[in-house]
Amino acid sequence: MNTYQQEKPVIVCLCGSRRFGEMFRYVNQRETLAGKIVLAPGCFQGDVVLEVLPGVKRQLDELHLHKIALADEIFVVNVGGYVGESTRREIAYARRQGKRVRWLESGACGDGYMECDGMEG
Fold it and tell me: N- to C-terminal Cα distance for the chain?
């Protein structure tokens, strides 16, 4: 058996505000170089498609839940501790699915809803 057949890489889904596109790219690269399969948003704030097509954000949010379902864990890109409403829903969904939750910054873990599980990035 070769290495491909023996070891399945961890699948990580990046979650967070689409306003942090540059940080998503950085984290995606870092996780990929660590040998993980990375699922991430395909559109970010400022992308024309988000501004022109009605209802596209809702569709992308729904698609992202499917990515979370495929993943082994999520990585919350919480730049400056920011965790918005959509990201909170994604974290809650991931936890209901029994997914590991990791964080870019541990400072956002202060309130009860965002309780840290000891697995910050």
Answer: 32
pTM over 0.85: no
User: Using one digit for the tens of pLDDT, what is the confidence trace for 8-57?
Assistant: 999 999 999 888 989 999 999 999 999 999 999 877 666 666 666 777 77
Burial 17-41 (b: 16+ CB within 10 A, else e): bbebbebbeebbeebeeeebebbbb
* Cβ–Cβ under 8 Å, residues 68 and 93: yes
- C-alpha–C-alpha distance, residues 42 and 20, integer Å: 12
